[in-house]
Structure formats: C-alpha cells, structure tokens
Design goal:
- The complex is a heterodimer.
- By secondary structure, chain A is an all-beta fold.
- Chain A is built from no helices and eleven strands.
- The termini of chain A are far apart.
- Chain B is mostly beta strands.
- The interface between A and B is medium-sized, with 27 and 26 residues.
C-alpha cells in the first residue's frame, strides 16, 4: 500500500505571497492532520480534517487554512507569507480520528520564504 | 503543551540495547503513549504505542510502569540506522481531539 504523499517536496516563495500544499493520504484513510516543524518550535499541530470537516485546530493565525476533498486528499494554504513560515510542513493520515488509530506521516514539504 | 519529558540526548553502542526513558506523570487514564522517530528531517516514523500493558513489535518494545507515569522504549539491538530523534507522545483522548502533541524528543546517537 502506498504511503502518504506530499507535493511539492520543496518550495521557495517570497514574503507576501501565498502557497498551497497538497497531501494524499494512505488509501482508505479518512483523517488527515497537518503539522509545522521549525528548529525553534519543534513539531506543532496545525489542524485535522475528517470527512471534509475541520475537526481540530492548533494555535496558528488565520493565514493558515486547509480543506479536505471527498476523496480524503487535503490541501493547506498559507496566505501573506512571512519569513517565520519557513518550515517543514508534514501531513499525517489515519483511518479514523480515534486515539488508537495510528497516524502515518508523509515526507513533508520544505517551504522556504525569502 | 507536551505532557512528556525526555532526556535531550543519549548515546548507544551498535549492537547493544537502547533504552529510551520518558516521563508522563500527568497522563490520564484513557490517554495512550506513542513513540515516533524522525531521521534527519524526514517525516516521523511510527514505532509503537500502548495504554498500560507492555507492547512489542518488530521494531521495539514498550514498557509502561504500573502507575503509567513513565515508560521506556527499548530497541533490542541498535544499529547505526537507528540514529534519530525519538519522540515520546501522550496522545489526547478522542474527546479532547486526539492530537499528537510533540515534545523536544531524545536525540539518539548509535556509535560503532
């Protein structure tokens, strides 16, 4: 079974631009979570989607948004990019959003904001 | 905030067992302990999880104390490829959101 895939793998943007990242979960998985990883803050939860609905949201500004499609694929969008948004963005999928369904991570998208 | 405390770094000799400790004294009765590892900015890799019983799989063993306030991840025969940052996570219950709240992890260096 194919793992979680994320596109693109690398991205360079400039301040003020917006960016859209994509995540395809493992086949059959309906829950998708997004995380941001930076050297200073570590791995931080952004949001989770299940059945096309945002189920959970972390403590990030409204510039960070996401959505999930009927095939469970998910996108996240960051508008008005700031230098501090440079990070590794990770997507994880699980069958359902229970505390026992393991989340499996993708390879991440490395975003650099200049 | 993360509910776990881990040593920032550990060394282990190749071929020996690596025992990675984790404290989670505020864990609630229905919260699971999860372990992931991350090798040099790749996506975190799931290792094992448990509630209160000891668990073993092909990668590792998880020993949880009876009071559930701490646990130990055991890699029975560490290899150089086990060099990574290991994260111990107390996962929120479903009603709380079920999120994985990562701490700073333990950087394990396996040396020849």
């Amino acid at each position: 079974k194919a793992g979680v895939t994320q596109t693109p793998r690398y991205l360079i943007k400039t301040r003020g631009q917006q960016v859209t990242l994509s995540c395809s979960p493992i086949s059959g998985h309906r829950s998708v979570s997004w995380y941001q990883q930076t050297p200073g803050q570590g791995l931080q939860f952004l949001f989770e989607y299940f059945s096309e609905t945002q189920r959970n949201k972390g403590n990030f500004p409204g510039r960070f948004s996401g959505r999930q499609f009927s095939n469970s694929r998910s996108e996240m969008n960051v508008s008005t990019l700031e230098l501090g948004d440079s990070a590794l963005y990770l997507c994880a999928s699980s069958p359902d959003p229970t505390s026992t369904d393991t989340q499996y991570f993708g390879p991440g998208t490395r975003l650099t904001v200049l | 905030d993360a509910k776990t405390t881990q040593p920032p770094s550990m060394d282990c000799a190749e071929g020996r067992a690596a025992n990675l400790p984790c404290n989670h004294s505020t864990i609630s009765g229905n919260e699971y302990v999860y372990w992931y590892r991350q090798i040099h900015s790749q996506g975190p890799q799931y290792i094992i999880h448990g509630l209160k019983n000891n668990e073993t799989n092909e990668m590792a063993s998880l020993i949880i104390t009876e009071d559930r306030k701490s646990s130990t991840l055991i890699l029975p025969h560490a290899t150089l490829r086990d060099t990574a940052v290991y994260y111990c996570i107390v996962r929120e219950s479903y009603n709380q959101g079920g999120k994985l709240i990562f701490g700073q992890g333990t950087e394990l260096s396996v040396k020849p």
